[in-house]
Amino acid sequence: MNYKIKALLLSAVCMGAGQLYNRQYGKGLLFLAVYVAGWYSLLNSLLGYVRGLITLGEQPSGMVKVGKLTKMVEGDHSIFMMIDGLIALLAILLLAGVYVLNLRDAYLTGAARERGEQPRSFAASLRELNRKHFAYLVLAIPGVAVLFLTILPIIFSVLLAFTNYADPILPPANLVDWVGFDNFLRMVNLKVWSSTFGGVLAWTLIWAVIATFTTYVGGVLVAVLIQQPGIRFKKLWRTVLIVPFAIPSMISLLVMRNLFNNQFGPVNSYLRSMGLDGIPWLTDPFWAKVTVILANMWLGIPVTMILAIGVLTTIPKDMYEAAEVDGAGAYQKFRLITLPMVLFATAPVLIMQFAGNINNFNVIYLLTGGEPVNANYQYAGHTDLLVTWLYKLALNQSQYSFASVIGIVIFLMVASFSIWSYRRTRSYREEDMIA
Amino acid sequence: MRRGTATTAKLSLSYLILIVLSLISLFPALWIVMSSFKVGNSLFSDTFIPRAFTFEHYINLFQNTRYPQWFLNTLKVAALSTIFGTFLLLLSSYAISRYRFVGRRTTLTTLLVLQMFPGFMAMIAIYVLLNTMGLLNSHWALVLVYSSGAMVTNVFVAKGFFDTIPRSLEDAARIDGASHLRLFFSIMIPLSRPMLTYAGLMIFNGCFVDFIFADLILRTEEQRTLAVGLYRMVSQRNSTEFTLFAAGAVLVALPVTMLFLFLQRFLVEGLTAGATKG
Asked: Under CATH, which architecture does the B56-277 domain have?
């Protein structure tokens, strides 16, 4: 008798039948229940939802003449249909996964029976699950949370980039449609969009380079300064200089916005009391850029400092002693020993910080809000980064599809940097060393 | 002899620079504390230390705004998110670090990719989802979003940490007959205290200061969190009630800053681990 082929075929026709044939009644009934429920929901609702995802609604809301009366008819809401369609797709994928598991199980148990083994009882199957597949059980809860709260929303946002969901086409009054790559083309070809996009992109890159560089160099220098032989109260200095990192950045940025206030802020009043003119810290395009970089240094230097101190304490002392014997001065010791060691150990962080700065929403949004306004830009100001522009487009201007296009651009930028760096970090490369 | 004076000069210069840097790093904090005790409500002040001190703004904050309520809301959301977030984080990073299962590589890559999307690109979708689930304007919605987000952002640090715990420990326990769960709760959790502290602190701080999601999800004033309330105070009333904002800012920053400084050791360890182990 060919148990495995028979069980496989039975399970292929009707989920659970193969298991029942294998005399695994508990498991078989469970699969059968999923099978029935699956078909029921598929025919009843899931397929309709998927159709909605494809059409994005056919019935706009509006006045419809019914006999002699005009009635307000609530039409399809494209955005809700999109989300429902996505959830339905996920459910279908899940059902397909269970189906494959059912086939595999029927086949394997059938094969075991051919070898003359007794099929496992339901309780034994559960024990086996706990023993061999513990990882899946543990990952199930976080997996579901991530699936619904992170993956699904991201897929939805990516899809938005291919629709015309932007003011004035807003549901429920209007129906949204798929437009393919139109938004991307418009971003590049249409003058209003392309000039803003180019300008904001350029500033984002300049900002990311300068912000990363200044905090990195500053942090390393401060660390070297504190760790110098002969400096006392090292712990005190470190604690004091870590304070900017300890204060919630949202608070310190709001405080700085007031510190740098042109008219009444203390920075300008000190400058004036020294007989200098006040500087338009937040209102002049150039100075606003300087201000955000200075504020970012204040926030970011402590982090690099902590990291660099960590590296510095691991550099063996005899290296410096050997260098001294060879007649190296302080500068040479720094350039030839300290810097290479620190750079080597913190290179991955440097790249991650660069990627992080591309997405540095808080500093810009809380300090300048992207202002001063640039008259040539579409809904953006002089200090706006791509992320803050995205935020404004989506939440203030309802230009959702364009916001999604920007999001995809940011993703592509960050992804290329991150993949490049992650491939170099230990935990990814030496992945299976501990297996 | 000449070498001696050169070192002294160098050291004095270093001390001078350190003092200047310390002043710069403390100045915003000192200034906002001073401002919160200042009489009147304007931003401008001709002296750094106010001429007269007053507690008026703190009293005002508790009597005329919903500050105490916001504080309780924030505490509730932050505490719950920290508990759920660290729980999810522990489960997932432990499983990824310790078990070799089909799809493990894919899980790692997916988590990596997810981190690269700008966080609030997904905001609109989350808004619609929460709306359909009827969770808008609820603190539980925030807790859900924060804890699952925290897991995605911290999972690599946590996994790196678990990777450093030697396997022989578990093998020994397993030989003694400990089950998966027993092993997890009586060996791995106690050992991962430093990492738990770091992750917990990061999540707690994140919830304390987020004003974007909270502003989107919480629609009414009595549901609001501190960060949203403070942000509105600054962005709407602007500098007319500056000292009130100052008092509010001090009260928000104080607990978090203290927590950070006291737990400095864990922070330093966590940051360093996250950096070198990826």
From this structure: Orthogonal Bundle (1.10)
- Give the list of residues 6+ apart from residue B106 with CB closer than 8 angstroms, or none: none
Q: What is the mean pLDDT of residues A412-422?
A: 78
| Predicted pLDDT of residue B19 | 92
Determine the Cα–Cα distance for residues A256 and B29; give it in Å rounded to an integer: 10
Domains of chain A: 3-180 (no CATH), 184-434 (1.10.3720.10)
User: pLDDT (tens digit, 9 = 90+) per residue, A256-295?
Assistant: 888 888 777 778 888 888 877 777 888 888 888 899 999 9
Identify the bridge partners of residue A163 per DSSP, sorted by sequence position: A178
Size of interface A-B (CB pairs under 8 A): 261
Reported ipTM: the value is 0.82
A428 has a pLDDT exceeding 60: no
Using only C-alpha atoms, chain B has a radius of gyration, in whole angstroms, of 24
CA dist., res. A233 & res. A226, Å (int): 9
> Which position has the token pair 């810290």?
A281
Cα separation, B195 vs B188, whole angstroms:
11
Secondary structure (3-state) at A63: strand
Q: Which of B46, B205, B234 sits opposite A254 (nearest CB)?
A: B234
Cβ-defined contact of A142 to B92 (cutoff 8 Å) = yes
Contacts of A146 in chain B (CB under 8 A): 111, 114, 148, 151-152
- Greater confidence (B3 vs A41) lies with A41
